[in-house]
Structure formats: structure tokens, C-alpha cells
């Protein structure tokens, strides 16, 4: 018995020793990881770094980031830095395989976003490869200005938005009527199909319905790899996404080639417009530029619009007092439309002032684009802290939008908070900021507004699992994709 007891005591001591050794090894590993990246800066620059935590070798802070977003507490990631180092708004970390400075307050976000010379795009490799190296996310400041100038009119111009509006409206009306007869649906899944159908019609209106379905399935795989670790091995999201991009590029390239040489003066869609547009030197966009621009807009006009439309609808159903105000506004707009007018125009869209506040509040809470990426081209001093040359910079829009010092009671859905509010620069960033403000924001808000207009006037949403948990990556969504029934008011009264 004594021997057994001695053996157990020895085993217990060994376990304690092993645990202590592992802890020491982890601590040593963290110290060496931090030293390895900081030692290259020299002692003076190293002392000027902001406080922070660079995590473990290779994985850095990615485990903490993923754990926070997958444990239904996404704000806990930045909160851990704030609790340890105070609300200084700038911290060092190691993210997506690179030494990184996290920026979390409006003041510093504004500085970074407005400085195109010292802060260039610094998106992860996975995002650049999947969206496209010739899209807005990966090009230089001068190239960006040129593309922005060439594409603004075909995408966000008054004439373009007016031409898109009719199809958006017709598609929303017919789709809502169809949903009301389907019984139980995954509301988010169906909305994503709707917004995909709209954006692809805007892009390539002449293509068949079966082609649209193929493209949507391919794009879904591409989207899941956008912010994944760039691990190009079977079974990983990035590997699937690369294959999806290759298919998507092949399809879009084949459409471009079919249209080359056709003598059709009428521009039917965005692809036609992008193929025809010329700069001041009569230089046109090449095929790679056109394809990467379309894929970038596909992301903004499909994913963002679908998710924000779902959340705005859900929030309004959960807050009848706000729903009533929004509905009264839409009823007034409908009453004021002349009997001879067919459908909505941009005039009515711009009268949806309260609905615009509902959408802005939804964008703030949901945070579809919760972080943006830059890279310092030179050493930059901000608030006595250095952002070293070539280090990545992450702008945490989510933290800005959910900061109680910026938005009191930030988790509450309150469209009224926008009454008479002129947002200070850097405080409202759902579409980014500065010269790289998302170029598809007007089109996205138009899609969302038209849907909500017709939904509020004629339909009701009944969620089947209202307490369903939310998944935050790659975008916030209910795990059941918002299982619900859509009911038409005429059916309710019968």
C-alpha cells in the first residue's frame, strides 16, 4: 500500500513538473516570438511600439481572434486588449502571419484612412488572391483613382441607378409573392439568392437562369475563403475558394469574349459599360480589370446586401414601435406616387429618410465589414506610438461601432440615435472611409431600401427560432439562416 501511495505521489509530482515545463515553454515561446519580430526594429523604435500581445509563434493572436468570434462573443477579442492596456486605441499584435498594429478608435481610424501615401492596402493574401489583384483592394493609390473615375458612372451614377431600379423592384415584388406561398423558408438563404440574381442581372443581364445558379454556388465557396488563413491544401476553405475563383473567372472571361466585336450600341448591363468606358487617353479596361471589378462588386452587392436586408427586417419585427414609424413613411410615399407613374423612382428612394436611419443602424450593429487592412509604407508616429514601416494595420470598425463612448448603449437597436446626428469622421465606417470608401455603397443601399419598402407595406416575418445563436464568421448570421415564414397581409386578414 505504501509503495502504491509513493508511486501515486511520484506521478502527481511528475504531472505538476510537466505542466510547469509546458507553461514555461509557452511563455518562453511567446517571448522569443515577440523578440524575433521586434528585434529587427532596433532599441529606439522597439521602445516606441504601442503595448500589446503578439501571441504564440506562427499562430500569433489568431487563436484568440477565432475563439472570440466562434464563442458568440466577438467583442471580447479587442476587449482583452482594452482591459490590459486601457482604451488607448492602438495595440501591437500578430495577425494573419504578420506583425500588426490594431487600430480601434475613431480618431486613429480617421488618421489612417485619410493618409493614402503612408498607408496602402494591406489585405491578407487570401483576400487579394480571391477578390483579384486588379480590384480596388490590391492596387496602388494612382491605379485606384483611375479605376474609381472610370467605374463610378457605370455603377453609382444617377442614370445607372435609375436603370437598375426597375429590375430590382420587379424582382423584389415577384420574389416576395413567391415566398409567401412557400411556407417555411431559410430567409437569409433566399435573400442571398435574390440579391445574387439582382447583382448578376446588373452585371450580365443576358445570361440564363441556369448560368446564374452555377455562378451563385461557385461564389459561395469563394466567399468562405475570403478571410481564411491562406492554406492551399485540400480540405481548407482557402483551397476550395481558389478553385471557385478559377471557375468564376473562366465563366466571366467566356462572357466577355462572346461580347467582343458585337456591334450593339445599346448598353444592356454593367459589363457592357465597363467594356466600353475609356480614360482621357482613350485607354480601355483590360479583361482582368473588368473581371476583378465585377467580383469585387459581387461581394458588396450580394453578401452585404443580403445580410443587412435580413437583419434590418428582423430588427424591425423585434421592435414594433420602429416598424410602425418605418411603415407609415412608406405608406406616405406610396400615397404620393402619381397614378400615372409606374413603380418607384430615385425621387421616392431619397424620401425614405427614416428607412435610411434603420439601414444605418443595422449596418452599425451587424458590422458586415468588421475590419479593414492597411500597411505602413514608412514609420508613422501616432499618439507617441510608432507604426513601423511594412507592418500591417488593422482598422477595427466593429470596435468603433460598438464603443459606448461613441454610441451610448451600443448593443441596442435605436434608429432614433441618428436623428439630427452628423457623424464625425471615423465614427461610422460600414463602407470604410477616405478615398477607398466602398464604391458600391449607393447600389447596396438602393437594393435594401426597395426590398424593405415592399416588405413593410405588404408582408410580415415570423421567425421559427427567434433565440437561434448567431455565427459571426465570415458574416454575422443566425445558425439556422433565419428559418421563418413570410406572410402577405391579405392572407392574414382572410
Question: How does this structure look, described?
Answer:
It is a single chain. With 494 residues, the protein is α+β, with helices and mostly antiparallel strands. The protein starts with a helix and ends with a helix. It has one domain (96-493): Cytochrome p450 (Orthogonal Bundle), CATH 1.10.630.10. 55% of the residues lie in helices and 10% in strands. Helix 9 runs antiparallel to helix 13 (287-318). The relative contact order is 0.14. The strands form four sheets. It has a five-stranded mixed beta sheet with strand order 1-2-8-5-3, covered by helices on one side. The protein has a three-stranded antiparallel beta sheet with strand order 4-12-9. The chain has a two-stranded antiparallel sheet with strand order 6-7.
Rg, Å, rounded: 25 Å
CATH topology: Cytochrome p450
Helix- and strand-based class? alpha+beta
Return the CATH class. Answer: Mainly Alpha
Low-pLDDT segments, ≥5 res: none
* Share in helix: 55-70%
Instruction: Tell me how many strands there are.
Output: 12
